[in-house]
Amino acid sequence: MNDETRQSGAGTPDIDRLAVYGSAAFLFAIAVMPGAVSPGIVGAAADSMQLSESRLGVFIAMYFAGFGLVGASAYVWIRRVDWRRYCGVGILLMGFSFVAMALVESYSLLLALMFINGCGAGLFGSPSITVLGDISRPEQGFSTMIIFSVVGAAILLWVFPLVGGAAGFPGVVYLMAATTLACLVLLPLIPRNVAVADRKLPTRDRENGDNHYVTQPLLAHAVMVLFTLGFIGMWAFFERVAYYAELSDMATANALAIATLFGTIGAPLAAWLRRRIPMYVCYAVTILFVVVTLAALGITALDDMTYLLLACSFQFWINSGFCLIMALTAEVDKIGRFVAMIPASEAAGSFVGPVATGFALEFSGVTAMVWTTAVAFVVGAIIFAYVDRKDRALTARAALQTT
Known about the structure:
This protein is an all-alpha fold. It folds into two domains: about 180 residues, Growth Hormone, Chain: A (Up-down Bundle); about 190 residues, Growth Hormone, Chain: A (Up-down Bundle). It has 16 helices and two strands. It has a two-stranded antiparallel ribbon. Helix 4 packs antiparallel against helix 15 and helix 7 runs antiparallel to helix 12. The N terminus is likely disordered.
């Protein structure tokens, strides 16, 4: 959606101001933080409560279930509600559900609280990412959000062992609660809503029953599902790849931390390139390098330095891909409702990815896991190219009809 489709009401902050879209970017980064720092939360829960791996997996999955459910429903309510109020309620739900997790011992209650946590994240995640999609240069907002998310996750994952060692699982979730509730100070900068101009389809589209304003965004969401499936499915077991290569634990931990931070520069680079060359070309190059990285990971005799370089390459191009997919979704979302559903697509891919790659790794080894994710990335790239090229053709046709 471009700046011609936005109509700010009275008293609504200018969403193109850095403070406004920066606050929205930070809120979405916090909304997805439980997934980003899930290794730290899982580790603290395992150490403090002696939960089995299967139970830990279900525990984290409940966050994605709540996050995805609310994200999917956002299509209905995103343009009808007060975003600031929904963000406030979501932050409170997420923050206090973390507090409650520190006070209960029942596994069933923990699952319920994690589901509520995900629902709260969805309540402020969907409005905040919609703000980013509504600005005149959405890729700039998305790249800012990715930087906040990655740097924030790296800091928390570095602090978690210190807090967990001193206070266990309660200390970790109290830290997450404090981080979440601190976001309440950003609420005055979040618009109450941004109305979308009624963009009627050209007469020829109506006569032909053309519904590209629905199919195009849905295909963009399919790309996000496939991309997240490949990314989370691979990243969840990146440490296992090092383990099977018999690399040292310290070298592996350092490589993953360095790669996570290095990846932050991938998003702003994609935002810069997207304005200079066709978006589908940017994405094709991104996926090419992702697949080459994965292939090298599957066939190379790994040592510490090779593993570090491949991890950095993977994170760099992954963050580039996330920025481009979000920008594509915003570009083809002509009715201003589909960007709000990005959390649902991310949750769906994040839920399925580790299951698919886990089976591949267990029964067929690292190479099978690598090619499973590579197929998801390549299929997504084909869909991306189709959507972007069609959008360019539709835009050109609409321009001719208006002249």
